[in-house]
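ARCHIVE CARD
Drawer: 12
Card no.: 0347
Subject: one protein chain, sequence and derived structure
Cross-reference: see card 0346
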Amino acid sequence: MTARTDEIARFLASHGYHAWTQTLLAGDASTRRYRRLTGDSGQTVILMDWPPDTGGDTRPFVELANYLTGLNISAPRILAQDHESGLLVIEDLGDALFTQAIAAQPRMENTLYRAATDLLVHLHQAPVPELSPLTPRVLAEMTGLAFTEYRRAVKGQSNDMARSHFEDQFEEILRESLTGDMVFVHRDYHAENLIWLPDRDGLRRVGVIDFQDARAGHCSYDLVSLLQDARRDVPTRIETDMIDRYIEATGIDEVAFRRAYAVVGVQRNMRILGIFARLSQTFGKRHYIDFVPRVWSHFERGLSHPALETVADAVLDVLPEPNADTLERLRA
């Protein structure tokens, strides 16, 4: 028995879960590990294992889970916690990720996306907890990963001059485009972090996970995350309808919102290009490169908006298109 295994066993025993059977669940892009615990009568909970020595900090998850459940949103309830050890027992919301629910019942796709969009409308009306803000400068600097990770993996160097110049120009575009009050931003609000709970009512049918990195930011951010999904193709019809739905429900200025949506789309997808390159190159998670052409398509489409015309050509000249050779280098 390893020291970590022993630590987990003590934690579970202290909260009455020592006799429950454990099943390892598929992980995500982080250092977190999850196990489903099953009791004698079939009841289940989830063990989150996020060791502090790997950078884990379970406190934000607990604080934000409590915030979301306080808004009548279906985040996992916290059942047991030991922050010093990086261990939580949380409510099991099941396995019906939107991705799987749609695959099982394709006709439900529009219903699920409508529900997820309506949840954002509800969330954006709530007071924002104390969160670090996604300021124009922060967002601009986040795009640097496209140069330092994605471009460097393909070309062998990052072109720091081009990166710095782009960030400065892009910061001004962000500053002009992202107007209005900040809202709660999940930052990874997509079909593999949303769980369909059909036995619940209204907005509570949407289970929300993986929110521990939330920030305060522009209201378009999570809608971009939902509709420009890196991992699955969201039909154009649904993307268009959900943008219209959000605008109508909130009464936000349509022209300003569509501009912000395009600009945030460019920002987010540039960052994802860098993250996926790093996951492949540094951590050996080559399957993330399969998503790069889709991410690039979102990025390129966003650049076609007039708000990006001053930077579009230059950034496309510097960042390599994901052709067969590029993808091979990213997997190397």
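Annotation on reverse: Residues 254-283 form the longest helix (30 residues). The chain has two domains: 3-91, 98-331.
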